Amino acid sequence: MNVIEIKNLTKFYGKARGIKDVSFNVEEGEIFGFIGPNGAGKSTTIRTLLSLIYPTSGSATIFGKDCIKFSPEIKKEIGYLPSEVFYYDNMKVMDLLNYSASFYKKDCTQRIQELAKRLNLDLTKKIDDLSLGNKKKVGIVQGLLHSPKLIILDEPTSGLDPLMQQIFFDLLEEENKKGATILFSSHILSEVQRLCDRVAIIKDGQIIKVEKISTLQENTYKKFKIQCASKVDKKHFDMVGVNDLEENDNVISFIFKGDINTIMKKIAEIEITNLWVVEPDLEEIFMHYYEKEE
Ligand SMILES: Nc1ncnc2c1ncn2[C@@H]1O[C@H](COP(=O)(O)OP(=O)(O)OP(=O)(O)O)[C@@H](O)[C@H]1O
């Protein structure tokens, strides 16, 4: 079952492009990454899903219901962490969280205490006295306190130190194991790689790829570096699938895409002293996609 279905969603801010024809689905129980550079349209998509802004055209459903028409009902089952959090500064953290909890028809007291303890958040402090990172933690507790079925996170890690990020990721994985579906927007590739099952890549307001993280990594090129026993003419590797061929001090390097057996046979024809085969990291894969589409 799809928890989120987005169909040809388009949003123009006056004449300015927000998003164009965005379509993708998020299945129940998955952690879905939404990745793209600044200004690509991640927040616009998310804010439309939450009916904080209205689409110019297209539609989206959450739990099978139109996200604009049924917004109040749907929101009860969603935990949302916006990219920037703003609060009434002179409230105490506990009062703010109790106020947030009052929107849901369940007792969230125990969960608030648990989350605050895990995140090392002082509930007795005034919001005004909190650092940026601690304000972010308040947002996280707000997003998770009602054990939502769908968690939507817009660039959630900014302001969190590495240790806190780890605790936060652990929390998300626990919620996911309990059944929550997660939509996670980010421009940080390593965190998407670490957490997500599938990913939608957005650029200039348009989706350029929806793919499993594992497939993205499998179906791309590999980087070869070969140390040869003696000088080898680099033309030896001038063949289909080989790119960026370079030779330096008996070391030949290139990028290879294609059947791995063909390149292994070619390597076996020469005397080598060492060989490195490196998978590109996600960053390189995404750069490749962005360049290809230009
Ligand atoms: N209120 C607005 N008025 C006019 N243009 C807007 C508005 N909000 C967003 N935009 C434009 O829409 C496009 C998409 O912005 P959006 O904030 O959705 O991107 P994003 O992927 O979330 O980027 P970031 O990571 O920088 O938040 C950008 O070109 C942006 O300038």
TrEMBL record:
Keywords carried by this UniProt record: ATP-binding, Nucleotide-binding, Transport
InterPro entries reported in the protein's UniProt record: AAA+_ATPase (IPR003593), ABC_transporter-like_ATP-bd (IPR003439), ABC_transporter-like_CS (IPR017871), ABC_transporter_ATP-binding (IPR050763), P-loop_NTPase (IPR027417)
One Gene Ontology term of the molecular function aspect: ATP binding
Domain of life: Bacteria
Gene3D superfamilies: P-loop containing nucleotide triphosphate hydrolases
Claim: Isomerase is one of the keywords in the record: no
ABC transporter domain location: 4-229
Family from the record: Belongs to the ABC transporter superfamily.
Name under which the protein is recorded: ABC-2 type transport system ATP-binding protein
Lineage, highest ranks first: Bacteria, Bacillati, Bacillota, Clostridia, Peptostreptococcales
